[in-house]
Amino acid sequence: MRSLLVSLLAGCALAFGALPATAAGGGSERIRDLATVAGVRVNQLIGYGVVVGLDGSGDAATQVQFTGQSVQSLLSQFGVTLPPGVTPQMKNVAAVMVTAALPAYAQPGQQIDITVSSLGNARSLRGGTLLLTPLRGADSQVYAMAQGNLVIGGAGAAAGGSKVAINHLLAGRIPGGATVERAVANAALESDVIHLELNQTDFSTARLVAEAINRHLGGEQAQPLDARVVQVRFPGQGSRVRFIAELENLEVALAAPPARVIVNARTGSVVINQSVRLGASAVAHGSLSVTVSSTPVVSQPAPLSGGQTVVTEKADIRIQQGSGALMEVPASADLAEVVKALNALGASAQDLIGILQAMKAAGALKADLEII
């Protein structure tokens, strides 16, 4: 019986077979989908904070001591001092880590989204409020301040040792929960050139991007520096922002991608792209199944023997070997033909992984085999 995976591959073949002739190569994409401008990037921020207002689902102070220390430090800023050696026992407070992504060119006063995650043993952060938390960058400088009410996409209840939970209750988001306090300096537009960094390393793509830009500008202002970076010189006059916007929307006719087969050994997923080719080969693949079953057996002692009735198990082991007949796999130069040839083997998803590995070792699979 064919597996769901093989059926899925057959569907992929139909989809690629319906593409127009121009997609036989790599199709076309905008430069903004292929590359990014060097220096225009996000910066990750992180901070440690305290969430209050929980309904008895916060950290247990006896087990998570830094939560109590954080509360003491917070209260001391408001003139509240606890006696030495006293640790507050609070069920409505939780220690959390706050993370955010600071966009490029973000200015002071703008708001960004933040993610709040439990750090201790709180049961839920639902209904909590994050207190004022500084968010720092890799240079330990404060770039934003976070505060607000958490949005938790789940719910839970517990009673009498039983509990039920929907989705995850220990992490949530605060839309617009942080205010930018400091801008990150960016000199991407101050130089005479910009560098377009490709999302994937490929010499052919770098050459094609440079050629598309030069055709649009009517000169030799773009040149690939390597398989990852294309250098473009700014025009002598005009808005540089408008110039970059024009470049980002240019269509680039791409070459066919490298032939690649991606195998996820944990889930049994196999993905084959349109550049994969098969050489003629013969495949024999037999399935081996082992079945172990146990049957309870009662051992009854003889009358007046003083023995006890004992229940034992009788194990029955069966081994079944598949036929493993030799099948010819014809040479295939089209994705639809490749899938048709693999379907003819009638292999399951896990069996298909082993077959593809063997075909690659034998030189019949004309593609890079990547196992993730």
Give descriptors for this structure.
about 375 residues, alpha+beta, Gyrase A, domain 2, 3 domains, 6-stranded antiparallel beta barrel, 4-stranded antiparallel β-sheet, about 20% helix, about 35% strand, flat
- SSE string, helix = H, strand = E? HEHEEHEEEEEEEEHEEHEEEEEEEEHHEE
Give me the secondary-structure category. Answer: alpha+beta
Mean pLDDT: 81
Spans of 5+ residues with little confidence (pLDDT < 50)? 1-24
Distance between the amino and carboxyl termini: 26 Å
For the largest beta sheet, what order do the strands appear in spatially?
A: 3-4-5-10-7-6
Instruction: Please indicate the count of domains.
Output: 3
Query: What value does the Rg take, in angstroms?
Result: 32 Å
Number of strands: 23
Number of helices: 7
SS strand fraction: 35-45%
What is the general shape? flat
Helix content: 10-25%
Largest sheet: 6 strands, antiparallel, barrel
Fold and architecture overview:
With 372 residues, the chain is an alpha+beta fold. The protein folds into three domains: 4-24 and 259-287 and 323-371, no CATH class; 28-40 and 187-253, Gyrase A, domain 2; 43-180, no CATH class. The protein is 21% helix and 36% strand. It has seven helices and 23 strands. The strands form eight sheets. A six-stranded antiparallel β-barrel has the order 3-4-5-10-7-6. It has a four-stranded antiparallel sheet with strand order 2-11-13-12. Strand 6 (129-136) and strand 7 form a beta hairpin. Helix 1 packs antiparallel against helix 6. The longest helix has 15 residues, at 203-217. It is flat. The protein starts with a helix and ends with a strand. The model is unreliable at 1-24 (pLDDT under 50).
